[in-house]
Automatic annotation (TrEMBL):
Species per Swiss-Prot/TrEMBL record: Flavonifractor hominis
Protein name: DUF2798 domain-containing protein
Keyword annotations: Membrane, Transmembrane, Transmembrane helix
Keyword Electron transport attached: no
Listed Pfam families: DUF2798 (PF11391)
Lineage, top ranks: Bacteria, Bacillati, Bacillota, Clostridia, Eubacteriales
Keyword S-adenosyl-L-methionine belongs to the record: no
Amino acid sequence: MPQNKRESLIYTVLMCFVMVLWMSFYNVAIQQGGLSLAVFQAGWLGFPVAYVFAMCCDWFLVSKLAKGFAFRFLVKPQDTPLKKVICVSCCMVVPMVIIMSLYGACEGAFHTGAWASVPVHWLINIPRNFIMALPFQLLIAGPLVRKVFRTAFPEGKVLA
């Protein structure tokens, strides 16, 4: 886990990149009904704005709330690092899925003009995104980003 603000920023940049890119491809594939080159093109084109939005939400809002909740109710200082990582990751996924599902519903309405359908699409998107985001975070993105992060930035190398 990151040890200071600079490490947290670097880690957040990497984690957001992996999660938003994957979830962009996933949502476009669902919208288009399957995987194709067009899915990857559309996912990649929509990625930059979604990434900036997710980074801002993560850095300025969700991270503080999720860590506060996790360390207040779920983990204790003496708990293992793995338990801390899993609890914080789960606490991050839940609000990010809720926020980014709303973002996706609004983005869809922006392209179609169907603004009245935003609440319905938002409620449909939440469980659909949650069932992909949580396992992906815990099993693939989390371990991958932690490995890349600690390989690139050994503990104690990024100064506060």
